[in-house]
Each structure stands twice: as structure tokens, then as C-alpha cells.
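Hey, can you fold this one?
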Amino acid sequence: DIAYHYDKFLKRGFDWVIDVWGADHQGHVPRMKAMMQAFGLDPERLTLLLYQLVTLKRGGETVRLSKRTGDIITLREIVEEIGADAVRFFLLSRSADSQMDLDLDLAKQQSSENPVYYVQYAHARIASILRKAGDAYDPQAGDVSLLTHPSELALIRLMVQFPEVVETAVQKLAPHHLTYYAMDLANAFHLFYRDCRVLSSEPEDADLTLARLKLVRAAKAVLARTLHLMGMSAPEQM
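Sure. Predicted structure:
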């Protein structure tokens, strides 16, 4: 640890280093702060986040692990089983002081019960709507004052919260705010899609269709940005 942080601070000139440790390393924190003082550096330049350990579940039962007996599952194996997107989402979905159960079976489900699938499916559904709109869709057109349905307004209100959510996640070093926001945004879009017909061939619906397409395009951009901030993909189709 000393050599690692010596390289970070004194050789490579980092201004601030954030370490993510397991909660079982709490007793090591004072030593690291003392190390910073020995380096002649402000201890506040080193932030130590202590996360609770992750419990793996499969088939409704806890997967028993033991370093002594060699019964372990590596992160690489988990990524190979459920995918990198699912691993990132589930690991980010809890605050540092919350116990986390990673249900491997749930993470592989293609249903609304799986939050990863639910969020990414919302993005894929939006992409499908825009593809179906085809040449009739003009990104510059659309009078958003026509969007008055409660589901439309709920989606808009949630989207405008995005900068605040990102700022909170950064300032508090709490990326779980992004996962909660992604699920809320996906849910708001699915409700909007249920309640409001986006594409209509009726001439009298032309203006409203353009307005809703503009809303859909904005929702796609915000959802994609949220996924990318978590290091996840934003699929165009599923």
C-alpha cells in the first residue's frame, strides 16, 4: 500500500486518490493517514471508502465461499456468467454502508424484475420508436407545449433532475444515486409509453406526434448518458 500510494502521489503527481476497500480493512485506515503525514502530504488528499462485502446468491441460496479451502469465485468468473453491465449495475446499486446480495440468477433474467434488463430495455425501446418514425421524424420539430399528459410531465420532471443527480453522486462519492435514477427514469418512460401513443398516422395527431418524438429523443439521450456514466452500454435493440 505504501509503495502504491508513493507512486500515485509523489511520482505521478495525483492531487486526490480514492481507495475502495472492504469494510474488514477499517483498522488499516489510521495507518494510511499516518503514511500520508510521513510523505509530508495532507491526509485529506486520500479518501478511503469502506464498502460492505458482497453476498452471492444462486438458486435462492447463498453461495458459500472460503479462502481457506480454496472455494472462491473471481470477479472475472462473475463477469463471464452475467456480463459486465450487470456486474457494474448491481455493484453500484448500494451505498457503501449497505449490505449487498448479488443474485446471479436474477442478473441473467430478461424480465422487468431484473433492473439491468429493465433499464436497458427502455433505451432499446426508445431506439425502436425512433427507427419506426423514420423520415417522418424531424429532430428540430415538435412543440413541447403540447405535452400536457401527466405521464409526459412526470417524465419531463424526472429528466430535468439529471444534472442534480450527477452532482449529488459526485459530491457524496455515492454512485448508487445513478442506479436509482436510471430505474426511476426507465419506469417513467415505460409508464409514458403505456399511457401515450407516440406514433400516429392520423393527420390531426401530427403535431402531437412530433412533440412526443422530441420528448422520446430527449429521454433516450438522458438515459444513455446515465448508463455511460456507470460504464454500461446503451443498446439500440434487445
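The chain is about 55% helix and 10% strand. Let me know if you want another pass with a different chain boundary.
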